[in-house]
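Hypothesis: this fold can be encoded by more than one sequence.
Test: take the structure tokens below, design a sequence, compare later.
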């Protein structure tokens, strides 16, 4: 089966994507989200992802959590929404592509594609550009129709569902 390295932002979004990919790929989740602040929020999302993937994914790869990696790429435009998000997408997708290539995955993708709150077309463009750079395929799909089902599944499993995107600035800007 085709091996997918799936950058995963949180459990509820994964459950939405799962509706579509479960019979298409062998999935490994990559939890690389240095944008999430504060640390307690990061831990909460990761713990809930572990509950969400039970019986579904092969495993979760968690990369080290260092918020300065995010800060470095958005420095100077941190208050500019949605411009800073493009840097945030690039950071996370670039790392995913790098790991996918290193570990010989067939394709990479991101659960951010399920969210109607993200800049979907920009994610698609950035994913394709990075795929060409790293010579590993980006699996694009418009998963947004599955967003509500993911949220409902998370509710059913009593998972935590965050109310903001991730960074400290998003707390005042985005209500999810
Ligand atoms: S709002 Fe979300 S996507 Fe944008 S920079 Fe903050 S964490 Fe990243």
């Amino acid at each position: 089966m085709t091996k997918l390295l799936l950058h995963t932002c949180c459990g509820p979004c994964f459950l939405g994507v799962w509706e579509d990919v479960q019979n298409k790929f062998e999935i490994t989740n990559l939890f690389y989200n240095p944008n999430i602040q504060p640390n307690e929020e990061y831990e909460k999302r990761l713990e809930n992802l572990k509950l969400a993937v039970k019986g579904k994914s092969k495993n979760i790869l968690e990369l080290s959590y260092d918020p300065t990696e995010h800060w470095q790429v958005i420095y100077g435009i941190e208050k500019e929404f949605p411009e800073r998000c493009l840097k945030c997408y690039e950071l996370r997708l670039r790392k995913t592509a790098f790991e996918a290539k290193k570990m010989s995955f067939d394709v990479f993708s991101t659960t951010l594609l399920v969210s109607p709150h993200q800049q979907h077309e920009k994610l698609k463009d950035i994913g394709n550009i990075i795929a060409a750079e790293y010579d590993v395929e980006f699996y694009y799909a418009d998963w947004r129709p599955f967003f509500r089902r993911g949220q409902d599944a998370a509710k059913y499993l009593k998972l935590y569902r965050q109310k903001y995107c991730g960074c400290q600035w998003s707390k005042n800007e985005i209500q999810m």
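The chain has one domain: 2-172. Helices lie at 11-21, 39-53, 67-74, 83-102, 120-134, 147-156.
Hypothesis status: open.
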